[in-house]
Write a structure and sequence with these properties.
With about 90 residues, the protein is an alpha+beta fold. The chain is built from one helix and five strands, in the order βββββα. A hairpin with a 2-residue loop joins β1 and β2. The longest helix is centred in the last third of the chain and has 14 residues. The protein is about 15% helix and about 45% strand. The protein has one domain. The chain has a five-stranded antiparallel β-sheet, covered by helices on one side. It is elongated, with a radius of gyration of 13 Å.
């Protein structure tokens, strides 16, 4: 899912983890700006730990509207019901 906030293009990609982590989540990528094509954060539904986890791998300042889009996409695409994928 591509979207723009404050002139910055972001993309949300869904992913699953069945190796070290069991669950599903979404990554937020910056597609233009000075980081072009770099992941900046993730929300992960950890089915084994039964927790929703948030990770950030960058000092990049992400607009709140982009974070809200990530949370909404995660809720709509994967939900919050813990269902092991492996």
């Amino acid at each position: 899912m591509l979207f723009t906030v404050d002139g910055i293009e972001f993309e949300i990609c869904s992913m699953t983890g069945t190796g070290e982590r069991d669950g599903a989540g979404c990554e937020l990528w910056v597609m233009n700006d000075n980081l072009g094509g770099q992941i900046v954060m993730e929300i992960f539904r950890n089915d084994e730990a039964k927790k929703i986890e948030f990770s950030s791998w960058s000092d990049y300042t992400v607009p709140l509207a982009a974070v809200e889009n990530l949370i909404q996409f995660q809720d709509e695409y994967w939900g919050r019901i813990f269902t092991p994928l492996s």
